[in-house]
Amino acid sequence: MSSSPSPDRTEEIASAIEDLLYMGAIRIKEGGNNAMLSPQLALVAANVADGVKEAQGDPMKLMYYSLLIYMNEHLKIPKSLTIAMGNDMEKHREDTESGSLVTTYVQVLAEIWSQNNNNNNNNKNKTPS
Question: With 70 as the cut, is the pLDDT of residue 76 above it?
Answer without folding.
Answer: yes
